[in-house]
Design goal:
The chain is of the alpha+beta class. It contains 3 helices and 8 strands; from the N terminus they run αββββββββαα. The protein has one domain: Umud Fragment, subunit A (Ribbon), CATH 2.10.109.10.
């Protein structure tokens, strides 16, 4: 254990998705954060394949735009996506780079909340601050990826500065 983190090393091996979800839930119940490496591109460009993600226990109230780890009730897989709508029935989830929503999940399906991202050893701040509400709004409507693609040359210097 280092600095309040539980460190799990699998010597370069990957663990089955269900095992990671169970391990994450067990660690988070102790109040300690859980850190693991992202795989996939559904949250790109804000979370990229290979980024280090730190998950903390989810607060009692989950907010619009937050990025959370949850067990998807439709396929049973551990997923890290953004809350794009909050209703009494649950939380509508969607990856920033995903064309379709995951559907609504209940509070009990949410394991934790992303509190830190690191890429190549450097902290990434963009996507988890106040801008998360704008990102959620654009993602839900399918406008986020087209907007980023068409304006990449404008935002690239800003993103580099934000993530430096």
């Amino acid at each position: 254990m280092t600095s309040g983190y539980v460190v799990v090393s699998a010597a370069g091996q990957t663990m089955p998705n269900a095992t990671v979800a169970e391990l994450m839930a067990a660690v988070l119940t102790t109040g300690a954060p859980f850190r693991f490496t992202a795989s996939g591109f559904s949250m790109s460009p804000f979370i990229r394949d290979g980024d280090a993600i730190t998950i903390a226990p989810a607060p009692a109230r989950i907010h619009y735009g937050e990025v959370v780890a949850f067990v998807n009730p439709f396929n049973g897989k551990l997923t890290v996506h953004r809350v794009v709508h909050v209703s009494r029935g649950g939380y509508l989830m969607q990856g920033d780079n995903a064309p379709e929503q995951d559907g609504y999940v209940s509070r009990r399906d949410i394991i934790g909340r992303v509190i830190r991202l690191e890429r190549h050893g450097k902290r990434v701040r963009l996507g988890l601050g106040l801008e998360r509400t704008v990102i959620a709004f654009l993602a839900r409507r399918g406008w986020l990826v087209p907007m980023i693609v068409s304006t990449w040359w404008i935002f690239r210097p800003i993103l580099k500065k934000f993530n430096a």
